[in-house]
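Appendix B, record 7
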Amino acid sequence: MSQHPLCFIIMPFGQKPDPTGRGTIDFDRIYHEALEPAIKASEMEPVRADEERTGGIIHKPMFERLLLCDCAIADLTTANANVFYELGVRHTARPATTLTIFAKHQPIPFDINFLCSMPYDLGENNAFDKNESRALREAVMQKLRDLRDLTVQQAPVDSPLFQLLSGWQPDIAHIKTDVFRDRVQANEAFKRQLAMIREKGKNRGTRSSAHEELKAFREKLGPLDAVDAVTVVDLMLSYRAIEDWDGMIDVYDHMPEILKRQILVREQLGFAYNRRAGATKNEIDRDTALHVLTEVDSIQGPSSETLGLIGRIYKDRWKEANDVQEKLSAMGHLNKAIDAYRRGYLADPRDAYPGINLLTLLDIQGKKESIEEKNRLLPVVRFAVEQRLASGTPDYWDHATMLELAVLQEDPEQALEHASNALAVVREIWEARTTANNLRMIEAARKERGVDTSWLEEIVKELESKGL
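Structure tokens (predicted):
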């Protein structure tokens, strides 16, 4: 067990829009390039909340980390509601050792502007390049070292609750802290093990080994109601990475009810049922997927993620009906897929996933009004992806979307460039297969219209080989 103090990081995840209108903010980059190395250089061990794995729910291990970690850093940038809630919990339990930081171009909300918070610079258009990351890293490192020194000497109070209520003294037993530290170490080890299994699942030569290791890992965990929620969701997504749809569904079936109700988990359940239906041609699975996702849509309202998954179900049904020459059924499913992707795109035009699928299906539909709609929306979808590319941390889907846009515009040179970028960052085998299937659909529709698509064959074949 590590003897280093634990430092809990409270911050948003992934890329978030900047409320001031500047470029998106990449919080993962801020963490990995500045906060994490600063904490380690201060001889502390970083522990980050896993909001991206649990849909943001506050679960028991989260409260334990907020209450029991030796130090905490809270990034107040974008005034994220979860961050403020967690900071409030921390200030209720710990009188000191909480460092608040924020991007200096954004004002801190009035209710907490009395805190002694540390500003940092995100750089032009929030690019957060090497200069900004180095400056934040060094500043946080110095603050944490000073904080540790001061704590040894006088334990300065930084919680406003402890400052205002002198008699407030919650009792946290030392034995509880020791048990917590052991659990954190175990959970971090679980995360590393699952990450290694997912990495093996990418390669054909080690894929069967990944399946066996994940099966053994699952058996070792035992009943899931006794396991950290983060690990449970990570397990479900690890089954997704190796395309084990039965495994995803089984994990869901054995989850505690609080996790089963989470939007992220239910979206992944719908995803798994639909993918299993694609492999087995079992329409009951397809119906189940649609029921799960439609229920999520009715509860939370329009969402680009949920509607994108619903659009995929109807797109699969369209393709299957089209393959067996059921033209009228195929036309109905295509209309429903277009409608779902359109609703998803309009729910959040920054999310290019439903947007590119909408453009592709409009192109395949080929009607005059469909082509006109495609031509109107294509520059808007491209702009959304270009903004993500400019952020400096694009993922597979960003490059794959640019590839599909280039194909829709019949630009072989750009298509080849974006295909090479996408192939270099494939994370999970089903991703490349999804893109290849989309390009095959475009290719078939173009051939029916007498358009030469021979230049596309090399790209599709290489994507298909990645997805084997």
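Remarks on this record: The chain has 21 helices and seven strands. Residues 61 and 318 are 44 Å apart (CA to CA).
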